[in-house]
Amino acid sequence: MKTIRRNPTNNTFKVPSWTGLFLLLGLLGTGACAPLTVNEEKQMGRGVAQDVMEEMTLVEDPLVVAYVRDIGFKIVKAAGPQPFDYKFYVVENDVINAFALPAGWIFVHTETILKARNVSELSGVIGHEVGHVALRHIANNYRRQQSVGIAHQVGVLAAEVLVGGIGADAADIGGGLAGTAYLNTFSREAEEEADIFAVLTLPKAGYDPEGLVTFFEVMQAESSGSYTPEFLRSHPTSDERIKTTQRLVNRLPSRSGLLKSDGDKLIQVQDRIRKLEKRNK
Ligand SMILES: [Zn+2]
């Protein structure tokens, strides 16, 4: 697979700003065992988002960004009043992935948009990520991880990233994101809850939620041999999970009138992404 790099001529490992990580460790140092408050989560989100934006290449093309934001904000509106101002960004990256940072900073990789066969699939992924934020999984994760020694483990992650030993994706993930990746490792229950959130919220936003199920299948098909798409690694998709989500979709009273495809719109966005990637190679 092709790899998009920010600095194609410079392969030296970039030491990240670590703002988010230090903020995270600073919060850990408070010793509080409660979940993050809304304000703490907002503060953490700002710090980590700053790292992400410094370390990853964001797509600035207005057509692409507006397309993802439109879907994202429709879902947020459908979810009802929220304590956070959600923000949606597109990251130029050829790995299928999407992730949520604390307080509603949501990032979608270009490869996810390219692999989505219709808007229902893309909205399924975004709906799932909004679910993690809306259900306060990151705040609760913080408490859960703390009880198993997150400070130690984040420290280990940081050390591994510094020596570039965390795996093939380390250079792409960037050190400041190690803590984020950690906060994005959700329990199976949290994954199920985010799936349920997506299935129940997407219809209110006008989208057919079955795309979440069919996109799981796309991701499974992408897995071959030892290769597993990143989204699958952080979002293990068992046959059981697919079946459970499909059952939930089948139980919805009616899906008539819900958007599965938006015609040429997604195709235009995908064309634009391919052109951008070609130009940036
Ligand atoms: Zn998830």
Could you characterize the architecture of this molecule?
The structure is a single chain. The protein has 281 residues and is mainly α. It has one domain (19-275). Helix content is 58%, strand content 5%. It contains 14 helices and 3 strands. It has helices at 19-28, 38-55, 62-78, 110-115, 119-134, 137-147, 150-162, 170-173, 178-183, 188-201, 210-222, 230-234, 239-250, 264-280, and strands spanning 87-91, 98-101, 105-109. A 3-stranded mixed sheet has the order 1-3-2. The longest helix has 18 residues, at 38-55. It is globular, with a radius of gyration of 18 Å. Bound molecules: zinc ion. Zinc ion binds at residues 128, 132, 186, 191, 194, 235.
Q: Which hetero ligands occur in this complex?
A: zinc ion
* Main sheet specs: 3 strands, mixed
Could you give the order of strands across the largest sheet? 1-3-2
Tally of strands: 3
Helix content: 55-70%
Low-confidence stretches: 1-18, 25-32, 148-176
Mean pLDDT: 77
Number of domains: 1
- Give the topology string: H per helix, E per strand: HHHEEEHHHHHHHHHHH
Find the structural class using helix and strand composition.
mainly alpha
Q: Into which percentage range does the β-strand content fall? A: under 5%
For the CA atoms, what is the radius of gyration? 18 Å
First-last Cα distance:
13 Å
3D shape = globular
Please count the helical segments: 14
